[in-house]
């Protein structure tokens, strides 16, 4: 069984053995409480700022909203995380921000088999487990972050996406319906990332429900899947879910529609 997305009970059994990353704002981490032993790495801290993301990509000339390897290494080092650690990340927004953290870690060389998303976000932990507002003692490390080499990374650029339009690949737009209708990459199918989430539990829908939704859109394991949204946040969740389900050929368009439009590439409108 996949351990990409894990329940609160799985984490409870491993509290002493994993690094736990809370990506909520600092005031939530301190004021509302957090999982015991968690460290706070707020979402905005591992995203390129607006001016960094314009034109040539994020810090260090990297793509889209990636923060840059030096900045990400410093963040994880300050949080006391080692390159060999098992990491469980959570937020309070159905996992979309935590998934972005995990994808970023993978893109900078952390072993994806050691990256886990807490199913049902922080609320699933609160239901049955103790929380704390006590600060977590951290011993800084010298974390090494190295962007994955070509051939190892799931990242693709706009040219690769354009080539996928006339191939057997499925280009998947993970935004809301109104956004899709205003303009999308030609040939894309729409899969709002939230369609895979149960609003009541805040976690993933059952595997059977998710498989049915994916099959209905033609998003099947025998085809290459190319994901995009606006700024690569929402596709992080869908990418994580597809990894959880065992999809092997999933491409991640970090530049997403922000870059696609900035380059003057064609759009389709309507549903």
UniProtKB/TrEMBL annotation:
InterPro entries linked to this entry: Rhodanese-like_dom, Rhodanese-like_dom_sf, Thiosulfate_sulfurtransferase, Thiosulphate_STrfase_CS
UniProt protein name: Sulfurtransferase
Positions of the Rhodanese domain: 14-134, 165-269
Signal peptide residues on this chain, from the entry's feature table: none
Keyword Isomerase found: no
Keywords linked to the UniProt accession: Repeat, Transferase
GO molecular function: transferase activity
Catalytic activity, EC: 2.8.1.-
Protein's organism: Halorientalis brevis
Domain of life assignment: Archaea
SMART domains referenced in this protein's UniProt entry, alphabetically: RHOD (SM00450)
